[in-house]
Amino acid sequence: MTEPRMIFDSFIDMPLWNRAKWRGVGYLCFNDRPPVFGLYFENASAGEEIFRQWKSRLGNTDEHNQLRISIVEGPILGADPGYNIRIGSNTPSILKLAKEHGLDVRDTGVMYLSRIHRMNPPPGSENLHQFKTQYGQHKSFDLAQVAPTHNGGMTINPESLIRKTEIHLRQIEYILDGDLDRDAIVAPP
Question: In Å, how far are 32, 70, 116, 155, 173 from 86, measured between CA atoms?
Answer without folding.
Answer: 27, 5, 4, 22, 16
